Amino acid sequence: MSQENMRASDADREQIVTKLRSAMDDGRINLHEFDERVQQVYAAKTYGELTPVLSDLPAQRNSKSGPASAKDPGVFPTWVKIMWTPWVFVSILVTLIWLATGMGYFWPFWVAVPWGLALFIPTTVGYLVNKDQHNR
After folding, report:
1. Alpha-carbon span 99 to 91, nearest angstrom
2. Cα(8)–Cα(61) distance, rounded to whole angstroms?
3. CB of 8 closer than 8 Å to CB of 50
4. Taking residues 102-109, what's their average pLDDT?
5. DSSP state of 2
6. HSE toward the beta carbon, residue 128, CA cutoff 13 A
7. pTM, whole model, 2 decimals?
8. Which of 49, 58, 93, 108 has its CA 20 to 30 A from that of 42?
């Protein structure tokens, strides 16, 4: 029986998803492609079905010295930028509108704070999960 016809385990699928997440953080695939490929990974039953998911991505290096695997702790991952960029621009926009309309009651608070809190929760969970996976 060839390797391609052997059933994949949940651990095998998780390794593929980790590689896809790294490719997304490196900018090799976008969020939509990541989502599509993750769906393919979890639907796959055999190694042969998992192989095409990573076929157009370069092999990842194990050393920390390579540019593709170097993680600077001061740089935000792509998923954080994607989530928070609209919040920053909308918050600036509503604050400018508030300034232009006479600076009465600070109503931009009701736009920025609830939305910011709604983003803060998944960001915190994401960092904790990534930190936990990184420590393994």
Report:
1. 12
2. 23
3. yes
4. 93
5. -
6. 6
7. 0.47
8. 58
Please return the burial class of 117, using the count of CB atoms within 10 Å of its CB with bins 0-12, 13-18 and 19+: exposed
Cβ atoms of 5 and 48 closer than 8 Å: yes
Token pair 């990541």: residue: 34
User: What distances in angstroms separate CA 81 from CA 49, 77, 116, one per listed residue?
Assistant: 32, 7, 13
Q: What does the buried/exposed string (b/e) look like for 98-116 if buried means 16 or more CB atoms within 10 Å of the residue's CB?
A: beeeeeeeeebeebbeeee
pLDDT over threshold 70, residue 128 = yes
Write the CB contacts of 48 (distance below 8 Å, at least 6 apart in sequence): 4, 5
Residues 6 or more apart whose CB falls under 8 angstroms from that of 131 comprise none
- pLDDT tens sequence across 26-72: 888 998 999 999 999 999 898 888 888 888 888 775 544 444 444 55
